[in-house]
Design goal:
Blueprint lengths: L27 H8 L1 H9 L2 H5 L65 H5 L61 H5 L29 H5 L12 H4 L13 H5 L29 H5 L12 H4 L13 H5 L46 H4 L12 H5 L17 E2 L2 E5 L3 H5 L12 H4 L13 H5 L29
Length: 488
């Protein structure tokens, strides 16, 4: 014998024919397989390491396992570092590829006996507590336990909507998968804001996407269509008792009476002014419904400014004085209504009174004068129309030329006077007379403009002849000078 066999083959050592056929050396491998039946089965099935080796068809056992080297010899000649694990029935992937061999192969236990099923190593990690008979690999990957890929559609409860994004334990409390409820109410009873009044079948109105996106056909089921903000309101906003069999009003005032800022003054038909989308701005055609158009500052007024009592009992005047009589500074003395002078934007900024339509049209500087300069009171009655009545203090003639200022002066300005003395008084101002002021002649009788045209009437004090030649001085003298008298 070339040497002692390994301790594993000690029983076969006495009989050489147990391992050797002297007549045919090639039959040695078959003798090995006759004894190692599990290895032989792997080779036939092309399974495990020995059945998947590249030279399994022609290789011999002694090429790797050499005997007669002593009792303690290592006849397996196995190198962990060089071993290609994909030749086994368990390819190392994911987190398995970084593990040490001893993590799965226990000491003094044949490598082939290492468990191949996940639960063989991870039974203590099974959060499902053995409820699943399937292999862990059907849901979980080898890289991490998290991110299970279980196909829930293969069950009788397909995950849709928000259910697809929740974790397993959200429904399977404590990792218990059997039995798990399948009805909405079984899981969402605490979320039921209807308090059971709508029954247990939440799916009639709600979807799995979210609770708020209810698909209940309110018009078809109740005869009341939800429009505008009503469509976004929660059910209990109207069905406050939670019992949907209770009858609730279908008119605006029935639900919004407490929200009525008009205190019922404008009646119960809120939809006459307001829409379902929002309370403001109010879309009310005041002209079409009341035959009174809101113009100017009236547009900005609150309804309550005019409607101070219920509209059914209060009749509002449609003229200015009906509302603004207390604000009338004219004391009711002006005829024709406020709108004859004032606009509806403001009382003062858009006055449209046309003075030319009165018996005293405004000319010249009168057009730029303020009303108060002529009208001493806002009654605008009894106002003077003659020049002297307003301009007596401006009369430089002190009444000497009468009261008809307009005979000489223009309304464009006092200095602009246009009196034609020759034409109007039949006394042309010639010579030295042309340089005289009006008061030089018109001073005897205030208020009287008629004077004698005789020279002596004004020049009797200058008469050196003491009246001997009469009062017609112009028979000898000229208007240019007393001197140089001409005798005819």
């Amino acid at each position: 014998m070339p040497g002692k066999v390994s301790r594993a083959h000690l029983k076969q050592e006495e009989t050489c024919t147990n391992c050797h056929d002297r007549s045919n050396v090639r039959t040695q491998t078959s003798l090995c397989l006759d004894c190692h039946k599990d290895i032989a089965a792997d080779v036939r099935a092309h399974s495990r390491f020995h059945g998947r080796m590249p030279n399994v068809a022609t290789g011999e056992c002694r090429a790797c396992h050499t005997e007669h080297k002593g009792r303690e010899a290592d006849i397996t000649q196995f190198s962990r570092a060089q071993f290609d694990h994909h030749l086994t029935n368990f390819d190392l992937k994911g987190a398995h590829s970084t593990l040490d061999c001893n993590s799965c192969h226990k000491p003094h236990v044949a490598y082939r006996k290492a468990p191949e099923a996940c639960v063989g190593c991870h039974k203590s990690d099974d959060v499902h507590h053995g409820q699943y008979k399937q292999s862990c690999g059907e849901c979980h990957g080898s890289s991490s336990w998290s991110g299970g890929k279980f196909d829930h559609s293969k069950t009788d409860f397909n995950l849709t909507g928000a259910h697809t994004s929740i974790t397993c334990d959200a429904c399977h409390i404590g990792g218990h998968y059997k039995p798990t409820p399948k009805s909405c109410n079984a899981c969402h009873a605490t979320d039921d804001e209807h308090r059971g009044a709508r029954g247990a079948d939440c799916g009639k109105c709600h979807t799995t996407k979210e609770w708020k996106s209810a698909k209940y056909d309110h018009l078809k089921e109740t005869g009341y269509e939800l429009l505008g903000v009503h469509e976004k309101a929660t059910c209990v906003a109207c069905h406050r008792s939670g019992n949907y069999k209770d009858k609730i009003p279908k008119d605006c005032n029935g639900c919004h009476q407490s929200d009525d800022s008009h205190a019922a003054r404008l009646g119960p038909k809120c939809n006459d002014c307001h829409s379902n989308d929002k309370w403001k701005p109010v879309d009310y055609d005041h002209l079409a419904k009341t035959k009174y158009a809101l113009i100017g500052n009236h547009i900005k007024l609150d309804c309550h400014i005019c409607h101070t009592a219920p509209v059914k009992t209060q009749k509002l005047a449609k003229d200015c004085a009906g509302c603004h009589r207390s604000e009338d500074p004219h004391g009711g003395k002006i005829k024709g209504g406020c709108d004859a002078c004032h606009g509806q934007k403001t009382w003062t900024s858009d006055i449209i009174f046309d003075h030319d339509l009165t018996h005293y049209p405004l000319l010249g500087l009168h057009r730029v004068a303020s009303c108060a300069q002529c009208h001493k009171t806002l009654a605008f009655t009894g106002t003077a129309t003659k020049c002297i009545e307003c301009h007596a203090h401006d009369d430089v003639h002190k009444g000497g030329l009468g009261k008809k200022c307009e005979s000489c002066h223009s309304s464009n300005g006092w200095p602009l006077w246009v009196f034609d003395h020759a034409k109007e008084a039949h006394f042309p101002l010639l010579g030295a007379h042309a340089k005289l002021k009006c008061a030089d002649c018109h001073h005897e009788t205030p208020g009287s403009v008629k004077m004698s045209q005789q020279c002596g009437a004004c020049h009797h004090q200058d008469d050196r002849h003491l009246g001997l030649f009469g009062a017609q001085c112009d028979r000898c003298h000229s208007t240019y000078s007393w001197k140089g008298a001409r005798i005819q």
